[in-house]
Amino acid sequence: MLTGTPYIPETITVHLGTPDSNAPNVTVDFPTYVKNVASSEIYPTWPENALRANIYVIVSFALNRIYTEWYRSRGYDFDITSSTQFDQKFINDREIFDNISLLVDELFNDYVQRQGSIEPLFTAFCNGTTATCDGLSQWGTVDLADRGLTPYEILQYYYGDDINIVKNAPVRTALPSFPGIDLDIGTSGNDTKSIQIFLNRISRNYPAIPKIPVADGIYGTATAEAVRTFQQIFGLNPTGTVDEATWYKILYIYTSVKRIAELNSEGVRLEDISKRFAEEVKPGMQSDEVSIIQYYLAVIGAYYASVAPVDITGYFGEETEKSVKSFQRVFGLPQTGIVDRTTWNDMYRAYQGIVDSVPYDDSVSVALYPGTVLKEGVSGESVRIIQEYLTFINKTYPDIPPVSNTGYFGPVTKQSVTAFQKRFGINPNGIVGAITWDAIAGVYSDLRFGFDKRPYQNPGYIIGSEE
After folding, report:
1. Would you tell me how many other CB atoms lie within 10 Å of the CB of residue 74?
2. For residues 338 and 282, is the Cβ–Cβ distance under 8 A?
3. Which residues lie below 8 Å from residue 21, measured CB to CB, with a gap of 6+?
4. How far apart are the first and last CA of the chain?
């Protein structure tokens, strides 16, 4: 969850013992968990303001564990333990006190936050009698409530004046933060940007990790080198690719160096999780992201008969919504018609599967977008193909410079790409993503073959099985 804003999970999985103990896990809905802990940690006869303050603390502590994926990032299959040595007291199937239950129903989606930070505060606490700590004293809240302090004033007394109480946070199904696909050179999106931001912060504590000059969400050679060095330092296979193990190790070290799971957290700022790309692409939107989604759906629709075809317009209208829903139906997703992170990742996997399985014969067709962004410093067969297309286009459009088919994306290739983009009304950034690739391929096809031979323009080119 570190890659986004906090939310209330529908459920939480509790390990009924210390982290490494051979104890079972139980999964309960989040309000039930809070009611159980509150009934186990505090007394229902306490003043209501003391109870409210303690419930805020219990909620915030649990959300911090979930937000940082504190246990899951270290390979555990649970969110929190029942051990007060590490977390909060949870007694499975215990009796819940009525007044506590009513208060939790009101407060379970409110949490404490440090001003200027977005994460739920790690609200350290102790009972204040047999144990003392730097955080809240549970018994101390009783005295403060008896003195007439409000719940917020009680929390300020222990955690400082610079706190907020976030009210009515959204409730969502908790999903693992790992995107489900490895990040490598050419991949792009919010997940790549998050990794870049995390690594740049980690490099302050581990200066051997090179800084990534721009956290632009595009996985280039600088990102790969930073990942590779990180992997070497922390005993992972130094591939330069962010697989699941590397992803969670980066999250764990980021949490550690920023002390997010401690009371004196450095804090996660809004700009740390700012998105370059929309988290959800939905009807009514008009953007390059819509064009990319339409391109993927157009190609997928040429190989999956049950995925409705769509035109690439950049506008998310009824036709695109229908196509998205058909894709979601074929791939077993909720048919919302909205492209969220899960739909996007499945769409990318489906598209990439087509790219990997469709043979390319340059004598009869044009190549599909490779699924990875091409920019200066990248090399490979996809770069060679786009160089070949640009050089051919130069014969008709001399203002687009020809390029040697070296397979390396250098300054000359960037210059040629930029010139093409300027002529055909595309953002002239010198980067070949899906939109630019599709435009170059379309112009090349028209000039060489006399008509558009892109696969999605020719339904039936290859119709694959939906299995």
Report:
1. 12
2. yes
3. 15
4. 32
Do the beta carbons of residue 250 and residue 195 sit within 8 Å?
yes
Residues of the chain with pLDDT under 50: 459-467
If you write DSSP's letter for every residue of 271-321 in order, what string do you get? GGS--SS-S-B-TT-BSHHHHHHHHHHHHHHHH-TTSPP----SB--HHHH
Instruction: Please name the amino acid found at residue 314.
Output: G
How many Cβ atoms are within 10 Å of 38's Cβ, its own excluded? 27
Q: How far apart are CA 96 and CA 8, in angstroms?
A: 21
Task: Please give the Cα distance from 229 to 226 (Å, whole number).
Answer: 5
Q: What is the model's pTM? A: 0.72
Angle between helices 411-423 and 434-449 (to 10 degrees): 80
- Provide the pLDDT for residue 404: 93
Predicted local distance difference test score (pLDDT) of residue 175 = 75
DSSP states along 389-400:
HHHHHHTT-TTS
Smallest CA-to-CA distance from 183 within 223, 211, 233, 222 is with 223
Q: Are 454 and 441 in contact (CB under 8 A)?
A: yes
Strands 171-172 and 8-9: parallel
In 3D, which of 332, 334, 418 has the Cα closest to residue 374? 418
The whole-number pLDDT of residue 459 equals 46
Report residue 65 as tokens: 């564990």
Structure tokens that stand for 218 in this block: 């595009």
Q: Give the three-state DSSP class for 121.
A: coil
- How is the beta sheet containing 11-15 ordered, strand by strand? 25-29, 11-15, 80-81
Q: Which of the 8 DSSP states describes residue 142?
A: H
**Rounded to a whole number, what is the largest CA-CA distance in the chain?**
86
- C-alpha to C-alpha distance for 136 and 175, rounded to whole angstroms: 30
Task: Give the whole-angstrom CA distance, residue 102 versus residue 97.
Answer: 9
| Beta carbons within 10 angstroms of residue 40's beta carbon | 17
DSSP state of 329: H
How many other CB atoms sit within 10 Å of the CB of residue 341?
18
Residue type, 118: I
Distance CA 34, CA 38 (A): 6
> In this structure, what token pair is assigned to residue 177?
């933060």
CA distances from 373 to 37, 196, 217, 247, 416 (A): 48, 16, 10, 20, 16
- pLDDT score at 454: 67
